[in-house]
Write a structure and sequence with these properties.
By secondary structure, this protein is an alpha+beta fold. It has 13 helices and 22 strands. The strands form seven sheets. Strands 4, 5, 8, 9, 10, 11 and 22 form a seven-stranded mixed sheet that branches.
Amino acid sequence: MHRLLNMVLLAIVAVGLIVSCSGKPIPVLKVVDTENNRLVVLAGERTKPVNFYDADFVILGGGLGGIAAALSICSAGRTVILVEESDRIAGCFTYQDTSVYSENRFVETSGTSRSYQEFRENIRQWYKDNDQTPPSFFPRRFPGMKDFAGDNFCFETEAALDVIDEMLAKNIERGKLTVISRHKVAKVVTFSTRIASLHAVDMDSLVCNQITGWMIVDATRNGYILPLSGIDYVCGMESARDTGEPHAADSPDSLFSGHYLYCSYAPPSEDGGDYQECFVGEMQQGVPRDTTGVVMVPLGPRPRRIVSKKRIVEQDISAESNPGPRAAFFRDSVGIGYHPIVLPPRMAPPGKEIIRTKPFQIPLGALIPRRFTNYIAGGRTIGATFVASRAYNAPSVEWQIGEAAGEVAAYCAGYGIFTHEVLESPEHVRGLQDWLVTKRGVPIYWYDDLTPYDPEFNSAQMKPFDESGYHESMTTLHFRQK
């Protein structure tokens, strides 16, 4: 039962007020500690921050997107606080587990950035240095799709954690990166269209700490900070009427799978109780009930996605809607990716779960919410429909999103501006793209015959954005067309 809970408990965070016997409201902070299956409740004086952390930027989530964002920002000489709810960096990797990445065949040539290729090569080198053999390949996941037949990247958690620790270590030693583990945000303070500060609960010491930064990169896996901050978001599948997508549902799909686990706890006393254990004893289906002293934990949550300046839809990336060699062209591209859309079996007709795509781009507008100006999506909270987001969740794409988010943050800091100002200025978009390509080796346009180390890489990558009609003239993925 406990193992099941570790897999499915949503890290619910809430801030609210309860009323004491004297009638005075008592502030409350609540977070679910998913690693230990308990509800942590701080009340009264305990909701006041004990420690204060401040840096140029705050990254939420230590998954692939968060790691890539941290490397990007630190490379620009800025300071970063990375908040991770597990007890280690790279919380996306489970102890004593084996990760299998099904990537496209271009992932180590033209299809990803220098930093992601370095991550993969460092893992291979780890096995050589430790005289170990990497895990075996797994069967082809996408039969009949030749672009995904040749790369099945397997590694064990120990290798990934060692490699990531080493990649981040120099930034920690230089004081550029501070990792705060076992923390989860319970309250977000906003001012106008900006996030001013975060109140996070230390789930080990049971205190509240305040974290501030000029800009926030959200690399969480479920976007739990969005409802806390008031950033507009969507969750679940949109309707076909809304998106026009061939594979969307006829009507919007529900937020969760429909099953809820109910956790009962004793409301804290006026002098501030610490926490109550939160082990689940009941599972029901239907509309969740609102009961004092009950926390409703949904089973099978789907990531929240921002309502962004640009919403990516299935038609932007599917092979069916894009007859050329590439997906739709985004003039504000800050990265690239390539992976099929893989729908959950219950959300697609039998045999239709996998939707072919064309090599696609990551538009800057999809990382920026409509209203808030110092928040950037750094992973799965990207502004895409449920259908389209299933392609953007691939490991190499998540890394590229996080890397782009980090570079956007650093670019904004360099000019003393916010995200909307970059997006709305063609000159700034062009400057950001030039920085990504020339300084970081990040491809923003698709070729299959150029790597980030190629002498022609910089000019070739910028060509589609500098020359009118160039994209339309490209009939293959080759830069050197025959």
